[in-house]
Amino acid sequence: MRTLDVSVVTPDGPVFEGTAEMVSSKAKSGELGVLPGHIPLVAPLTISAVRVKQDGKTQYVAVSGGFIEVRPEKVTILAQAAELAEEIEVKRAEEAKERAERRLAETNQNDLDQARAEYALRRAINRLDVANHR
Ligand code: ATP
C-alpha cells in the first residue's frame, strides 16, 4: 500500500513523525483529506484535530491553527502548538476552558481581550475533543 511521510512540527520541535495511508485535517476552506499522490498545496488550518491513519488505526493530533503543506509523498504540518491525543492534560484543558468562559462573560473587556478569550476557548475545546480519542 502506498504511504505518505507525515511530520507535525512546532517551535518546540516535532510532535509526530511517521508514515500514513491518509491524513485528514480541517483547512480554513474546509475538510482536507490527503492520500498519497495528492497535488501539492499549502493551506491554513483551523484549530482542529489532524487524523493520521496508519495500519487501520487513527492517531489524533490537536493542532492550534498553523499550516499544512502537501506534497505527493509528504505532509508537513507547522503549528504554534500541537499535542498527541495521549499527551493532552485534560485537567489543564478544562481549566483553560473555564478561564476563557469566565473572561468571555466579563462585559468590561475590549475586543482584543474578547478575541483572545475566544481563541483560548477554541484551543481548550479542541484539546478536550482530541483527548477523547486515545
Ligand atoms: P494554557 O492556558 O493551559 O496554557 P493555552 O491554550 O494558552 O493553554 P498554548 O499557548 O496553546 O496553551 O500552548 C502552550 C504550550 O502548552 C504548548 O507547548 C502546548 O502544546 C502546551 N499545552 C497547552 N495546553 C495543553 C494541554 N492541555 N495538555 C498538554 N499540553 C498543553
From TrEMBL:
Coiled coil: 78-110
Pfam families registered for this protein in UniProt: ATP-synt_DE (PF00401), ATP-synt_DE_N (PF02823)
SUPFAM superfamilies, A to Z: Epsilon subunit of F1F0-ATP synthase C-terminal domain, Epsilon subunit of F1F0-ATP synthase N-terminal domain
Residues annotated as domain ATP synthase F1 complex delta/epsilon subunit N-terminal: 4-82
GO cellular component terms given for this protein: plasma membrane; proton-transporting ATP synthase complex
Segments forming domain ATP synthase epsilon subunit C-terminal: 86-131
A GO molecular-function annotation: ATP binding
Keyword Ion transport: yes
Subcellular location: Cell membrane
Keyword annotations: ATP synthesis, Cell membrane, CF(1), Coiled coil, Hydrogen ion transport, Ion transport, Membrane, Transport
Topological type in the membrane: Peripheral membrane protein
HAMAP family associated with the record: ATP_synth_epsil_bac
UniProt xrefs under NCBIfam families: ATP_synt_epsi, PRK00571.1-3, PRK13442.1, PRK13446.1
Quaternary context: F-type ATPases have 2 components, CF(1) - the catalytic core - and CF(0) - the membrane proton channel. CF(1) has five subunits: alpha(3), beta(3), gamma(1), delta(1), epsilon(1). CF(0) has three main subunits: a, b and c.
Family: Belongs to the ATPase epsilon chain family.
Reported function: Produces ATP from ADP in the presence of a proton gradient across the membrane.
Protein name per its UniProtKB record: ATP synthase epsilon chain
